Amino acid sequence: MSSNLKLRLIPKRATSLKQVLALKHPPAGGLAWHALIEAGLPPASVRTVAKAIGVSDKYLENFLGVSLEAGGTLGTRESDLLFAVARAYTRAATHLGTEQAGLWLVTPQTALGDRAPIDALRTRVGTEYVSGLINQLGQQRPAGIAGKNAAAGPSVRATMEPDMTHA
Length: 167
Known about the structure:
Blueprint: H1 17-20, H2 30-39, H3 44-53, H4 57-64, H5 76-96, H6 98-105, H7 117-120, H8 124-139, H9 153-159
Helix pairs in contact: 3-4, 3-5, 5-6, 5-8
């Protein structure tokens, strides 16, 4: 975990994408989500995602490459990355609980080459790896956080290879 990362423990965290992204009216389906992300998520989403995963607003702003002081909506790329973070968090929370999911997201994982899941979400391939790890969390729940020294080792790594046969 980066030394400039400050975790905040929050008693009750959001668990649905609607709550995590601070959406009054969430999209009805896949293409509606696509349209929302393409149009740009509201800046309030950065704050609520930061709160949910337990990091500072500034940390998430830097991660996304945005400034909340600029106003307006986020760009498509920033919205897509923020959605990926929110989605990974809500999925992990179903297996680990909200507080542990936030911590898991920023803790280096052996199966990700000692990178934190949040960092892997920057690319589609990394997102596939994180999704696979979250699926593994549902199949085997290691004691504590599945971090660098947890029991996630080689068996997870072997199942984490993305399908590149059509690349």
